[in-house]
Amino acid sequence: MARKTDDKKLENIYNTVQEHPGKKAGFIARLLGLSRSDVTRSLPTLEDRGLHLSEDDKGGLWPFKKSQ
Predict the structure, then answer these.
(1) Which of 3, 19, 22, 50 could join 60 via S-S bond, C-beta 3.0 to 4.6 A?
(2) Domains of the chain (ranges plus CATH)?
(3) pLDDT tens digit sequence for 52-67
């Protein structure tokens, strides 16, 4: 059952970044009631699932689609 919770958390993180592009992981975490480390630890899993995020020089997260 933890799997569904993880899936929902990952989906929420990605959707929140899409709604607030360029915001830092701490901002995204506060909106979702998560720790900043929860957000940053989720980034590789999101990428593995094809949900790619880019981090800029200031730590802002940006959604992007990987070119085929």
Answers:
(1) 22
(2) 2-64 (1.10.10.10)
(3) 999 999 999 999 865 5
